[in-house]
Specification:
single chain; 255 residues; 4-stranded antiparallel beta sheet; 23 strands; 0% helix; 52% strand; globular
């Protein structure tokens, strides 16, 4: 199925955590759209002020957070599909995530910090100095114990959510970490970059258990919410050096 409607690149998408048939997309055409995959049609859309690059759902499915190239954060009310809050940052902001309860909002920054905001006020509670280079991506462990941060320093750091302290780092990658994801029960973490493999490590001891070879830099890795299946997409080119536009899934048993 192809979902058509955006007039520019679709930079990120996310599934509605409460409705398995609904997904939201953030695009360079300034719109955020909601899609019903049963019909393949766009059910809602809203135009924001800039080129959208990051998007995430609140765990209860009521709000969507969107970040744009101008370092502006917008909160969308899903029911009305209107922007209800905005905050502009004077520095680079990248991926963001809510904690499991939706009371805390985490924002990765180009300064190497993770900003912890209260929600819904978006008041800054804490700036965690997480890495020596910019922080690009963040993932929240589905059990609510940890969050993980991927950085331009090629490290993935694991943080205790209740203490806000770093527990360990994952060091297998050699290039800036572009994307990270916890599996459904929080036992594994996948991370990827311009290295030609995806690293899968055990969360509790940091041990690398598998590396999935790939032919190009990876842009996105995402575990299935129920099974140990990992979807991944990257800059794969075909023999004519044109973007292949393919994503793959790892973890099916060989028949």
């Amino acid at each position: 199925m192809e979902l058509k409607g955006h007039a520019d690149s679709v930079d990120q998408l996310c599934w509605d955590p409460k409705h398995a048939d609904i997904l939201a997309t953030a695009s360079g055409d300034k719109t955020v759209r909601l899609w019903d995959v049963r019909t393949g049609k766009c059910s809602q859309q809203v135009e924001l002020s800039g080129e959208n690059i990051n998007i995430t759902f609140k765990p209860d499915g009521t709000h969507i957070a969107v970040g744009n190239r101008d370092d502006e954060l917008t909160i969308i009310d899903v029911r009305k599909f209107k922007a209800i809050n905005k905050r502009k940052f004077p520095y680079e902001v990248n991926e963001m995530a809510w904690n499991i309860t939706g009371e805390l909002f985490f924002l990765t920054t180009g300064n190497g910090t993770v900003d912890v905001l209260s929600y819904p006020s978006l008041v800054t509670l804490q700036n965690i100095s997480a890495h020596t280079a910019g922080c690009y991506c963040i993932a929240i462990d589905p059990t609510g114990r940890y969050f993980a941060v991927g950085s331009a320093d090629a490290l993935v750091s694991l943080w205790d959510l209740s203490e806000m302290l770093c527990v360990r780092t994952f060091t297998k990658l050699e290039w800036p970490v572009r994307t990270i994801s916890f599996n459904h029960d929080g036992t594994y973490i996948a991370s990827a970059s311009e290295d030609l493999f995806i690293d899968i490590a055990e969360v509790e001891n940091g041990r690398s258990v598998y590396q999935i070879p790939c032919k190009a830099a990876m842009n996105s890795v995402e575990w299935n919410p129920k099974y140990n299946l990992l979807a991944f997409a990257g800059d794969d080119k075909n023999k004519y050096s044109v973007d292949e536009g393919v994503f793959r899934v790892f973890g099916f048993e060989t028949p």
